[in-house]
TrEMBL record:
SUPFAM superfamilies: UDP-Glycosyltransferase/glycogen phosphorylase (SSF53756)
Annotated protein name in UniProt: D-inositol-3-phosphate glycosyltransferase
Domain Glycosyl transferase family: 196-352
Organism this protein belongs to: Cupriavidus laharis
Chain ranges passing through the membrane: none
Gene it is expressed from: mshA_4
Record-annotated Glycosyltransferase subfamily 4-like N-terminal domain positions: 23-172
Keyword Magnesium: no
Pfam hit, one: Glyco_transf_4
Coiled-coil regions, chain positions: none
Organism superkingdom: Bacteria
UniProt KW keywords: Glycosyltransferase, Transferase
EC number: 2.4.1.250
A molecular function (GO) term: D-inositol-3-phosphate glycosyltransferase activity
Length: 374
């Protein structure tokens, strides 16, 4: 039997991004592009032509004849994009979904733009929300990253729950292998960090709830703040002026708060995780929460929100707290420093959780979804 021919949207991998770095959708797409062929399908990367990508693409990529906006408008009026010469099924990972002459699977990563429009940029918001809703209406089947996301997809995208499959994300296996001796020390020295800090990783934006984390840290006893830096890794995103102002104010006051707006590489980021005494992720809403798995794999104990999908992703391996309660976050931070038994339990359970959630497992489960449609 011939291998299933899968078309995968990979426009997020070409022509830009944030300083050439991939966002969460890009990381997910790149992981599928690497691992799906090893799961037994024939993969073709697909992109829409347009000014962002230019005319040239790497060899073997299928470039659709129209830019996405033109094809989406045509699709809205019933036009069908013919692709079966190349593929048997198409998987859109980036909300860019149009009618095709083969089954279409769409990964809808979260419902933030529709459920929490105040957390998103107003620039082109109406057009983007239309695009996202069209993705839900047009796809033959939808992939969500967590069970917690399903209710939102049903409510805000008006999708039949029977048309949704939950396929968790994963983490690359090399995250489970500690960096070579001296590498972490070199990275920490480069960024003037002392091993044993509290760590947050994520784009600065309202739903990441960084202000509450800062308040929690600043409420810790002075002896702890003197020894433990708070290290924030993430670029400035939409509506983060208050967070940036709070970081700068803490620094002016002599607090040991470090903001690293950019990392030179993922290898450096891995060393930053390894050097932390605890990873704190008080997000108010996530579609999955990849940083949890990165911290777990790095052997760093985790404190995370007890809402959204984060308890589901953590699987009992993290200390869960009310993300709106800075006192609860501060108590958990101090507890992880002082209770070595709890620390070791979180580290062990976290590594087990990361080992379970691999990108290979994600690819295999995704291929199972494809096979139900062809």
């Amino acid at each position: 039997m011939n291998a299933l021919r899968v078309g995968l949207s990979t426009g997020t991998l070409y022509g830009g991004g944030h300083g050439g770095k991939l966002d969460g959708i890009g990381v997910y797409t790149a992981a599928l592009a690497r691992t799906l062929p090893r799961s037994g399908c024939s993969l073709t990367q697909c992109v829409y032509r347009g000014p962002v990508h230019g005319a040239g693409f790497p060899h073997g990529i299928v470039a659709f004849p129209r830019p996405f906006a033109q094809q989406a408008l045509a699709s809205a009026f019933g036009a069908t994009l013919r692709v079966t010469e190349h593929i048997d099924i198409y998987h859109a990972t980036d909300y860019r979904v149009v009618r095709m002459d083969c089954p279409v699977v769409a990964t809808l990563h979260d419902a933030v733009p529709l459920r929490f429009p105040e957390w998103t940029s107003p620039r082109l918001r109406r057009l983007k929300n239309w695009q996202i809703r069209q993705a839900g209406r047009t796809a033959d089947h939808v992939i969500a990253h967590s069970r917690a996301s399903v209710a939102d997809l049903v409510q805000y995208f008006n999708i039949d729950e029977g048309s949704i499959s939950v396929v968790p994300c994963g983490v690359d296996r090399y995250w489970l292998v500690p960096p070579e001796a001296g590498v972490t020390e070199s990275v920490l020295s480069r960024y003037k960090l002392r091993s044993g800090y509290f760590l947050f990783v994520g784009t600065l934006q309202p739903r990441k709830n960084l202000g509450t984390l800062l308040n929690a840290y600043l409420s810790l006893p002075e002896r702890i703040r003197h020894e433990q830096q708070l290290v924030i890794v993430g670029r400035a995103g939409w509506r983060c002026d208050a967070d940036v102002a709070a970081i700068l104010a803490a620094q002016r006051a002599g607090e040991r708060v470090v903001w690293l707006a950019d990392m030179a590489s993922e290898d450096e980021l891995r060393s930053i995780y390894v050097g932390a005494s605890a990873f704190i992720f008080p997000s108010l809403y996530e579609g999955f929460g990849l940083p949890l798995l990165e911290a777990f794999a790095s052997g760093t104990p985790v404190i995370c929100s007890d809402i959204s999908c984060l308890p589901e992703v953590a699987g009992g391996a993290a200390v869960e707290v009310d993300p709106l309660d800075p006192e609860a976050i501060a108590t958990a931070m101090a507890l992880l420093l002082e209770d070595s038994t709890l620390r070791e339990k979180c580290i062990t359970l976290g590594k087990e959780r990361a080992a379970l959630l691999s990108w290979e497992r994600t690819a295999s489960a995704t291929l199972d979804v494809y096979r139900t449609l062809v």
